[in-house]
Amino acid sequence: MRRLCGLKPYFELPPGLVLRCREVHFWCLFPEDVIDSSLLKVYESLLSCQERKEVYKAKTEKLQKERLLARTLVRTTLARYAGGCIHPSHLEFTKNNFGKPELLWPKYIVEKHGRKFPALCFNLSHTDSIIACAVTNNLMVGVDVEESKRVTRKDLMALARKKFSLKEASWLGSFQDQERQRQQFLKLWTLKEAYVKALGRGISGSPLKDFTVHLKESFWARKMIEDATALSCLSEAYTIQLELSNAAEVVLQNVGLSHDALHFLLFQPTPLQYASLCVQHPNVKADLHLSTHEDWKFYFWKTLPLAWDEPLKGATALAITG
Amino acid sequence: MATIAFSMSKAAASMCAETKALPLASQKQSLTHYTGLRASTFLAIPKTKVAAAVQQRASLQIRCAAEPKTLEAVQGIVATQLAVDPTIVQPSSKFSELGADSLDTVEIVMALEERFKITMEEEGAEKISTVQDAADLVEDMISSMPKVSS
After folding, report:
1. Which ipTM value was assigned to this complex?
2. How many CA atoms lie within 13 A of B16 on its CB side?
3. In a mutagenesis test of the A interface, which of B75, B98, B101, B131 is the best target, namely the one with the most A β-carbons within 10 Å?
4. Could you name the domain of life of the organism this protein comes from (chain A) (predicted)?
Protein backbone atom coordinates (compact mmCIF):
# COMPACT_ATOMS: atom_id res chain seq x y z
CA MET A 1 0.00 0.00 0.00
CA ARG A 2 1.23 3.47 -0.68
CA ARG A 3 2.18 5.33 2.41
CA LEU A 4 1.58 9.05 2.00
CA CYS A 5 3.58 10.18 4.99
CA GLY A 6 4.30 13.75 4.15
CA LEU A 7 7.90 14.82 4.03
CA LYS A 8 10.08 13.32 6.70
CA PRO A 9 13.51 14.52 7.67
CA TYR A 10 14.60 11.04 8.71
CA PHE A 11 13.91 7.79 7.03
CA GLU A 12 12.92 4.47 8.37
CA LEU A 13 12.96 1.14 6.75
CA PRO A 14 9.55 0.01 5.66
CA PRO A 15 8.27 -2.18 8.50
CA GLY A 16 10.02 -5.51 8.78
CA LEU A 17 12.68 -4.78 6.19
CA VAL A 18 16.29 -5.71 6.80
CA LEU A 19 19.07 -6.32 4.36
CA ARG A 20 20.29 -9.83 5.02
CA CYS A 21 23.59 -11.13 3.76
CA ARG A 22 22.08 -13.11 0.91
CA GLU A 23 19.71 -10.46 -0.34
CA VAL A 24 19.76 -8.06 -3.25
CA HIS A 25 17.49 -5.04 -2.99
CA PHE A 26 16.47 -3.19 -6.13
CA TRP A 27 14.98 0.29 -5.72
CA CYS A 28 13.66 2.33 -8.58
CA LEU A 29 12.25 5.75 -9.17
CA PHE A 30 10.22 6.78 -12.19
CA PRO A 31 10.85 10.43 -13.16
CA GLU A 32 7.28 10.66 -14.47
CA ASP A 33 6.13 10.23 -10.83
CA VAL A 34 7.95 13.42 -9.84
CA ILE A 35 5.41 16.08 -10.73
CA ASP A 36 5.91 18.48 -7.83
CA SER A 37 8.73 20.93 -8.54
CA SER A 38 8.94 21.93 -4.88
CA LEU A 39 9.88 18.31 -4.16
CA LEU A 40 12.82 18.73 -6.51
CA LYS A 41 13.99 21.68 -4.40
CA VAL A 42 13.87 19.51 -1.30
CA TYR A 43 15.82 16.79 -3.08
CA GLU A 44 18.46 19.34 -4.01
CA SER A 45 18.93 20.14 -0.34
CA LEU A 46 19.90 16.51 0.32
CA LEU A 47 22.86 16.63 -2.04
CA SER A 48 26.41 17.61 -1.24
CA CYS A 49 27.85 20.80 -2.72
CA GLN A 50 29.87 18.82 -5.22
CA GLU A 51 26.85 16.77 -6.27
CA ARG A 52 24.80 19.91 -6.85
CA LYS A 53 27.56 21.29 -9.06
CA GLU A 54 27.59 18.04 -11.03
CA VAL A 55 23.82 18.22 -11.48
CA TYR A 56 24.02 21.67 -13.04
CA LYS A 57 26.87 20.70 -15.32
CA ALA A 58 24.38 18.65 -17.32
CA LYS A 59 23.45 20.59 -20.42
CA THR A 60 19.67 20.23 -20.52
CA GLU A 61 16.99 20.57 -17.87
CA LYS A 62 15.90 16.99 -18.44
CA LEU A 63 19.43 15.70 -17.82
CA GLN A 64 19.77 17.90 -14.74
CA LYS A 65 16.57 16.42 -13.33
CA GLU A 66 17.83 12.91 -14.09
CA ARG A 67 21.10 13.55 -12.26
CA LEU A 68 19.29 15.11 -9.32
CA LEU A 69 16.91 12.18 -9.01
CA ALA A 70 19.77 9.70 -9.30
CA ARG A 71 21.71 11.22 -6.40
CA THR A 72 18.51 11.55 -4.38
CA LEU A 73 17.66 7.89 -4.90
CA VAL A 74 21.12 6.76 -3.82
CA ARG A 75 21.19 8.88 -0.68
CA THR A 76 17.66 8.22 0.49
CA THR A 77 17.90 4.50 -0.28
CA LEU A 78 21.17 3.87 1.51
CA ALA A 79 20.08 5.91 4.51
CA ARG A 80 17.21 3.46 4.96
CA TYR A 81 19.56 0.73 6.02
CA ALA A 82 20.90 2.77 8.90
CA GLY A 83 17.62 2.38 10.73
CA GLY A 84 16.77 6.05 10.73
CA CYS A 85 20.02 7.15 12.42
CA ILE A 86 21.41 9.04 9.47
CA HIS A 87 20.07 11.87 7.43
CA PRO A 88 20.60 11.16 3.72
CA SER A 89 22.60 14.35 3.36
CA HIS A 90 25.17 13.08 5.89
CA LEU A 91 26.26 10.13 3.80
CA GLU A 92 29.66 10.39 2.23
CA PHE A 93 30.94 8.77 -0.89
CA THR A 94 34.32 7.92 -2.24
CA LYS A 95 35.54 6.30 -5.45
CA ASN A 96 37.68 3.23 -5.87
CA ASN A 97 40.81 3.35 -8.02
CA PHE A 98 38.71 2.88 -11.15
CA GLY A 99 36.11 5.50 -10.39
CA LYS A 100 33.38 3.23 -8.97
CA PRO A 101 31.47 5.09 -6.22
CA GLU A 102 31.46 3.54 -2.75
CA LEU A 103 29.70 4.46 0.47
CA LEU A 104 31.47 5.84 3.51
CA TRP A 105 29.40 5.79 6.66
CA PRO A 106 29.87 9.09 8.53
CA LYS A 107 32.52 8.80 11.19
CA TYR A 108 30.22 9.57 14.08
CA ILE A 109 28.02 6.65 13.11
CA VAL A 110 30.86 4.17 12.82
CA GLU A 111 32.21 5.32 16.17
CA LYS A 112 28.83 4.92 17.81
CA HIS A 113 27.68 1.66 16.28
CA GLY A 114 30.93 0.13 15.13
CA ARG A 115 30.78 -3.06 13.17
CA LYS A 116 27.05 -3.50 13.60
CA PHE A 117 26.63 -1.31 10.55
CA PRO A 118 26.23 -3.24 7.31
CA ALA A 119 28.98 -2.80 4.76
CA LEU A 120 26.65 -1.69 2.02
CA CYS A 121 27.55 -2.14 -1.62
CA PHE A 122 25.47 -0.35 -4.18
CA ASN A 123 25.30 0.53 -7.83
CA LEU A 124 23.27 3.02 -9.80
CA SER A 125 21.95 3.21 -13.34
CA HIS A 126 19.49 5.50 -15.07
CA THR A 127 17.80 6.17 -18.37
CA ASP A 128 15.01 8.49 -19.46
CA SER A 129 12.21 6.60 -17.79
CA ILE A 130 13.80 4.99 -14.73
CA ILE A 131 16.44 5.53 -12.07
CA ALA A 132 17.61 2.31 -10.42
CA CYS A 133 19.72 1.58 -7.36
CA ALA A 134 20.76 -1.91 -6.30
CA VAL A 135 21.96 -2.56 -2.74
CA THR A 136 23.58 -5.56 -1.09
CA ASN A 137 25.19 -6.36 2.21
CA ASN A 138 28.84 -6.57 1.23
CA LEU A 139 28.33 -8.38 -2.08
CA MET A 140 29.75 -6.85 -5.25
CA VAL A 141 26.87 -5.61 -7.35
CA GLY A 142 26.28 -3.97 -10.72
CA VAL A 143 23.02 -2.80 -12.29
CA ASP A 144 22.23 -1.51 -15.75
CA VAL A 145 18.92 -0.30 -17.20
CA GLU A 146 17.97 0.47 -20.79
CA GLU A 147 14.85 1.70 -22.53
CA SER A 148 13.30 -1.39 -24.11
CA LYS A 149 12.24 0.63 -27.15
CA ARG A 150 15.70 2.03 -27.76
CA VAL A 151 16.71 1.99 -31.40
CA THR A 152 20.39 2.33 -32.13
CA ARG A 153 21.52 4.59 -34.95
CA LYS A 154 24.20 2.17 -35.95
CA ASP A 155 23.54 -1.28 -37.36
CA LEU A 156 23.11 -3.78 -34.53
CA MET A 157 25.34 -6.42 -36.05
CA ALA A 158 28.10 -3.84 -36.64
CA LEU A 159 27.84 -2.88 -32.97
CA ALA A 160 27.88 -6.52 -31.92
CA ARG A 161 30.93 -7.29 -34.04
CA LYS A 162 32.72 -4.30 -32.58
CA LYS A 163 31.91 -4.76 -28.92
CA PHE A 164 30.61 -8.27 -28.25
CA SER A 165 32.46 -11.56 -28.22
CA LEU A 166 32.43 -13.73 -31.35
CA LYS A 167 29.95 -16.17 -29.87
CA GLU A 168 27.60 -13.40 -28.80
CA ALA A 169 27.72 -11.74 -32.22
CA SER A 170 27.06 -15.08 -33.84
CA TRP A 171 24.12 -15.77 -31.51
CA LEU A 172 22.66 -12.35 -32.23
CA GLY A 173 23.06 -12.91 -35.95
CA SER A 174 20.91 -16.02 -35.73
CA PHE A 175 17.76 -13.96 -35.13
CA GLN A 176 16.01 -13.29 -38.41
CA ASP A 177 13.35 -10.99 -37.04
CA GLN A 178 14.76 -7.47 -36.74
CA GLU A 179 12.69 -6.55 -33.72
CA ARG A 180 13.64 -9.72 -31.87
CA GLN A 181 17.28 -9.14 -32.70
CA ARG A 182 17.05 -5.58 -31.34
CA GLN A 183 15.53 -6.83 -28.09
CA GLN A 184 18.17 -9.53 -27.66
CA PHE A 185 20.89 -6.96 -28.34
CA LEU A 186 19.64 -4.71 -25.56
CA LYS A 187 19.31 -7.60 -23.11
CA LEU A 188 22.89 -8.66 -23.81
CA TRP A 189 24.06 -5.08 -23.53
CA THR A 190 22.56 -4.60 -20.07
CA LEU A 191 23.91 -7.93 -18.85
CA LYS A 192 27.42 -7.10 -20.02
CA GLU A 193 27.27 -3.59 -18.60
CA ALA A 194 26.07 -4.92 -15.26
CA TYR A 195 29.03 -7.29 -15.17
CA VAL A 196 31.55 -4.52 -15.82
CA LYS A 197 29.90 -2.34 -13.20
CA ALA A 198 29.82 -5.13 -10.62
CA LEU A 199 33.53 -5.70 -11.05
CA GLY A 200 34.15 -2.00 -10.69
CA ARG A 201 37.33 -2.00 -12.75
CA GLY A 202 36.05 0.24 -15.51
CA ILE A 203 35.53 -0.72 -19.13
CA SER A 204 39.24 -0.95 -19.86
CA GLY A 205 39.65 -3.27 -16.88
CA SER A 206 37.03 -5.66 -18.19
CA PRO A 207 36.64 -5.25 -21.98
CA LEU A 208 33.29 -6.41 -23.28
CA LYS A 209 34.92 -8.76 -25.79
CA ASP A 210 36.66 -10.70 -23.03
CA PHE A 211 33.60 -12.48 -21.75
CA THR A 212 30.55 -14.16 -23.24
CA VAL A 213 27.07 -14.12 -21.78
CA HIS A 214 25.08 -17.13 -22.95
CA LEU A 215 21.29 -16.97 -22.85
CA LYS A 216 19.69 -20.40 -23.15
CA GLU A 217 16.03 -21.25 -23.07
CA SER A 218 15.56 -23.56 -20.15
CA PHE A 219 12.77 -25.46 -18.53
CA TRP A 220 14.40 -24.95 -15.13
CA ALA A 221 14.83 -21.19 -15.39
CA ARG A 222 11.29 -20.51 -14.28
CA LYS A 223 11.66 -22.48 -11.04
CA MET A 224 14.98 -20.81 -10.25
CA ILE A 225 13.44 -17.40 -10.86
CA GLU A 226 10.49 -18.21 -8.62
CA ASP A 227 12.77 -19.42 -5.85
CA ALA A 228 14.93 -16.33 -5.92
CA THR A 229 12.42 -13.57 -6.69
CA ALA A 230 8.72 -12.92 -6.32
CA LEU A 231 8.56 -11.72 -9.90
CA SER A 232 6.20 -13.07 -12.50
CA CYS A 233 7.95 -14.92 -15.22
CA LEU A 234 7.25 -15.75 -18.84
CA SER A 235 6.97 -19.43 -19.65
CA GLU A 236 9.86 -18.85 -22.03
CA ALA A 237 12.51 -18.05 -19.43
CA TYR A 238 16.26 -18.31 -19.96
CA THR A 239 19.28 -19.30 -17.98
CA ILE A 240 22.35 -17.12 -18.11
CA GLN A 241 25.82 -18.59 -18.21
CA LEU A 242 29.05 -16.69 -18.18
CA GLU A 243 32.09 -17.76 -20.16
CA LEU A 244 35.36 -15.99 -19.53
CA SER A 245 38.46 -15.56 -21.63
CA ASN A 246 41.80 -16.12 -19.89
CA ALA A 247 42.22 -12.38 -19.56
CA ALA A 248 38.82 -12.03 -17.91
CA GLU A 249 39.62 -14.88 -15.48
CA VAL A 250 42.75 -13.04 -14.44
CA VAL A 251 40.76 -9.87 -13.78
CA LEU A 252 38.40 -11.85 -11.54
CA GLN A 253 41.28 -13.41 -9.66
CA ASN A 254 42.77 -9.97 -9.11
CA VAL A 255 39.64 -8.91 -7.27
CA GLY A 256 39.61 -12.14 -5.29
CA LEU A 257 36.76 -13.87 -7.10
CA SER A 258 36.45 -17.34 -8.54
CA HIS A 259 35.22 -17.78 -12.12
CA ASP A 260 31.68 -18.71 -11.05
CA ALA A 261 31.32 -15.91 -8.51
CA LEU A 262 29.16 -13.49 -10.45
CA HIS A 263 25.51 -14.29 -11.09
CA PHE A 264 22.90 -12.48 -13.13
CA LEU A 265 19.23 -11.61 -13.13
CA LEU A 266 17.59 -10.08 -16.22
CA PHE A 267 14.14 -8.56 -15.84
CA GLN A 268 11.77 -5.82 -16.93
CA PRO A 269 10.77 -3.40 -14.15
CA THR A 270 8.01 -2.29 -16.53
CA PRO A 271 7.51 -3.15 -20.20
CA LEU A 272 9.44 0.05 -20.98
CA GLN A 273 12.81 -1.08 -19.63
CA TYR A 274 15.27 -3.92 -19.48
CA ALA A 275 17.31 -4.22 -16.30
CA SER A 276 20.21 -6.47 -15.43
CA LEU A 277 21.66 -7.22 -12.04
CA CYS A 278 25.07 -8.81 -11.65
CA VAL A 279 25.84 -9.89 -8.11
CA GLN A 280 28.55 -11.75 -6.29
CA HIS A 281 26.76 -14.94 -5.30
CA PRO A 282 26.70 -15.31 -1.52
CA ASN A 283 27.60 -18.98 -1.71
CA VAL A 284 30.93 -18.07 -3.15
CA LYS A 285 31.88 -15.93 -0.17
CA ALA A 286 34.19 -18.07 1.86
CA ASP A 287 33.12 -16.67 5.19
CA LEU A 288 29.44 -17.54 4.81
CA HIS A 289 29.73 -21.32 4.47
CA LEU A 290 26.44 -21.82 2.70
CA SER A 291 25.66 -25.20 1.29
CA THR A 292 22.69 -24.60 -0.98
CA HIS A 293 22.67 -22.73 -4.24
CA GLU A 294 19.12 -21.43 -4.16
CA ASP A 295 19.59 -19.48 -0.99
CA TRP A 296 19.57 -15.91 -2.20
CA LYS A 297 16.68 -13.54 -2.67
CA PHE A 298 15.90 -10.44 -4.69
CA TYR A 299 13.47 -7.77 -3.55
CA PHE A 300 12.09 -4.96 -5.64
CA TRP A 301 10.60 -1.61 -4.67
CA LYS A 302 9.56 1.56 -6.37
CA THR A 303 9.74 4.81 -4.53
CA LEU A 304 9.16 8.51 -4.59
CA PRO A 305 11.80 9.55 -2.04
CA LEU A 306 10.38 11.28 1.03
CA ALA A 307 6.84 10.53 -0.10
CA TRP A 308 6.09 6.87 -0.57
CA ASP A 309 7.43 3.47 -1.43
CA GLU A 310 5.79 0.24 -2.40
CA PRO A 311 6.75 -3.17 -3.76
CA LEU A 312 7.38 -3.04 -7.49
CA LYS A 313 4.41 -4.77 -9.05
CA GLY A 314 4.14 -5.91 -12.62
CA ALA A 315 7.85 -6.54 -13.13
CA THR A 316 8.73 -9.58 -15.21
CA ALA A 317 11.81 -11.74 -14.87
CA LEU A 318 13.37 -12.98 -18.09
CA ALA A 319 16.52 -14.86 -17.15
CA ILE A 320 18.67 -15.96 -14.24
CA THR A 321 22.04 -17.59 -13.80
CA GLY A 322 21.77 -21.33 -13.62
CA MET B 1 50.38 21.80 -37.70
CA ALA B 2 52.45 18.81 -36.71
CA THR B 3 51.42 17.13 -33.53
CA ILE B 4 54.28 16.73 -31.10
CA ALA B 5 53.57 13.45 -29.40
CA PHE B 6 55.39 12.12 -26.40
CA SER B 7 54.21 10.26 -23.38
CA MET B 8 53.09 12.28 -20.41
CA SER B 9 52.40 11.40 -16.84
CA LYS B 10 48.76 10.65 -16.19
CA ALA B 11 48.46 13.83 -14.17
CA ALA B 12 49.85 15.93 -16.97
CA ALA B 13 47.57 14.21 -19.42
CA SER B 14 44.53 15.00 -17.34
CA MET B 15 45.59 18.61 -17.22
CA CYS B 16 45.68 18.63 -21.01
CA ALA B 17 42.19 17.27 -21.15
CA GLU B 18 40.95 20.18 -19.10
CA THR B 19 42.73 22.78 -21.18
CA LYS B 20 40.30 24.78 -23.22
CA ALA B 21 41.23 25.13 -26.86
CA LEU B 22 42.68 28.53 -27.61
CA PRO B 23 42.18 30.30 -30.90
CA LEU B 24 44.88 29.36 -33.37
CA ALA B 25 46.57 32.79 -33.22
CA SER B 26 47.38 32.58 -29.53
CA GLN B 27 48.52 29.00 -29.89
CA LYS B 28 51.08 30.16 -32.41
CA GLN B 29 52.23 32.71 -29.84
CA SER B 30 52.77 30.10 -27.15
CA LEU B 31 54.64 27.91 -29.63
CA THR B 32 57.06 30.76 -30.41
CA HIS B 33 57.49 31.54 -26.74
CA TYR B 34 58.22 27.96 -25.69
CA THR B 35 60.07 26.71 -28.76
CA GLY B 36 63.17 26.43 -26.64
CA LEU B 37 61.63 23.76 -24.44
CA ARG B 38 62.74 20.34 -25.57
CA ALA B 39 60.47 17.44 -24.81
CA SER B 40 63.08 15.68 -22.71
CA THR B 41 63.71 18.83 -20.69
CA PHE B 42 60.03 19.10 -19.94
CA LEU B 43 59.76 15.51 -18.82
CA ALA B 44 62.84 15.78 -16.61
CA ILE B 45 61.24 18.47 -14.46
CA PRO B 46 59.24 16.90 -11.63
CA LYS B 47 55.60 17.89 -11.94
CA THR B 48 55.46 19.54 -8.53
CA LYS B 49 58.18 21.98 -9.47
CA VAL B 50 56.53 23.21 -12.61
CA ALA B 51 54.05 25.99 -12.11
CA ALA B 52 50.63 24.80 -13.12
CA ALA B 53 50.15 27.67 -15.54
CA VAL B 54 53.42 26.93 -17.32
CA GLN B 55 52.59 23.27 -17.58
CA GLN B 56 49.16 24.06 -18.93
CA ARG B 57 50.48 26.36 -21.64
CA ALA B 58 53.30 24.02 -22.50
CA SER B 59 50.84 21.19 -22.89
CA LEU B 60 49.07 23.16 -25.63
CA GLN B 61 52.08 22.48 -27.80
CA ILE B 62 51.60 18.81 -27.35
CA ARG B 63 48.21 18.45 -28.92
CA CYS B 64 47.29 21.28 -31.21
CA ALA B 65 43.59 21.95 -31.52
CA ALA B 66 41.84 20.15 -34.31
CA GLU B 67 40.96 21.96 -37.49
CA PRO B 68 37.71 23.93 -37.20
CA LYS B 69 36.15 21.76 -39.91
CA THR B 70 36.91 18.59 -37.96
CA LEU B 71 35.52 20.06 -34.78
CA GLU B 72 32.36 21.13 -36.57
CA ALA B 73 31.85 17.69 -38.03
CA VAL B 74 32.39 16.06 -34.64
CA GLN B 75 29.92 18.46 -33.02
CA GLY B 76 27.35 17.54 -35.66
CA ILE B 77 27.84 13.81 -35.18
CA VAL B 78 27.56 14.13 -31.40
CA ALA B 79 24.45 16.33 -31.60
CA THR B 80 22.75 13.84 -33.93
CA GLN B 81 23.62 10.79 -31.83
CA LEU B 82 22.47 12.37 -28.59
CA ALA B 83 19.48 14.10 -30.18
CA VAL B 84 20.39 17.46 -28.69
CA ASP B 85 20.44 20.97 -30.09
CA PRO B 86 23.82 21.40 -31.84
CA THR B 87 24.26 24.81 -30.19
CA ILE B 88 24.75 23.19 -26.79
CA VAL B 89 27.51 20.94 -28.09
CA GLN B 90 30.60 23.00 -27.29
CA PRO B 91 34.20 21.84 -27.67
CA SER B 92 34.54 21.69 -23.92
CA SER B 93 31.27 19.79 -23.44
CA LYS B 94 31.68 16.41 -21.82
CA PHE B 95 29.77 13.56 -23.43
CA SER B 96 28.31 12.62 -20.06
CA GLU B 97 27.00 16.16 -19.58
CA LEU B 98 25.25 15.91 -22.93
CA GLY B 99 23.53 12.73 -21.80
CA ALA B 100 25.70 10.12 -23.50
CA ASP B 101 25.69 6.68 -21.95
CA SER B 102 28.14 3.90 -22.81
CA LEU B 103 26.15 2.73 -25.82
CA ASP B 104 25.97 6.29 -27.18
CA THR B 105 29.74 6.58 -26.82
CA VAL B 106 30.29 3.41 -28.84
CA GLU B 107 27.96 4.71 -31.55
CA ILE B 108 29.69 8.08 -31.61
CA VAL B 109 33.06 6.39 -32.04
CA MET B 110 31.66 4.28 -34.89
CA ALA B 111 30.15 7.36 -36.55
CA LEU B 112 33.48 9.17 -36.31
CA GLU B 113 35.31 6.18 -37.79
CA GLU B 114 32.89 6.08 -40.71
CA ARG B 115 32.93 9.80 -41.35
CA PHE B 116 36.70 10.23 -41.24
CA LYS B 117 37.65 6.77 -42.56
CA ILE B 118 39.80 5.95 -39.55
CA THR B 119 39.99 3.29 -36.87
CA MET B 120 40.08 4.49 -33.30
CA GLU B 121 42.05 2.21 -31.08
CA GLU B 122 40.20 1.08 -27.95
CA GLU B 123 42.44 2.87 -25.47
CA GLY B 124 42.20 6.20 -27.26
CA ALA B 125 38.44 5.97 -27.60
CA GLU B 126 38.00 5.26 -23.89
CA LYS B 127 39.96 8.33 -22.86
CA ILE B 128 37.94 10.90 -24.75
CA SER B 129 35.63 12.75 -22.43
CA THR B 130 34.92 16.00 -24.28
CA VAL B 131 33.97 16.91 -27.83
CA GLN B 132 37.36 18.57 -28.23
CA ASP B 133 39.09 15.35 -27.14
CA ALA B 134 37.20 13.46 -29.84
CA ALA B 135 38.12 15.98 -32.53
CA ASP B 136 41.78 15.93 -31.46
CA LEU B 137 41.86 12.14 -31.51
CA VAL B 138 40.29 12.11 -34.98
CA GLU B 139 43.03 14.44 -36.23
CA ASP B 140 45.72 12.29 -34.60
CA MET B 141 44.32 9.22 -36.30
CA ILE B 142 44.09 10.98 -39.65
CA SER B 143 47.64 12.28 -39.47
CA SER B 144 49.03 8.89 -38.47
CA MET B 145 47.35 7.05 -41.35
CA PRO B 146 49.70 6.18 -44.22
CA LYS B 147 49.33 8.69 -47.06
CA VAL B 148 47.85 7.32 -50.28
CA SER B 149 49.85 8.51 -53.29
CA SER B 150 47.68 9.68 -56.17
Report:
1. 0.89
2. 22
3. B101
4. Eukaryota
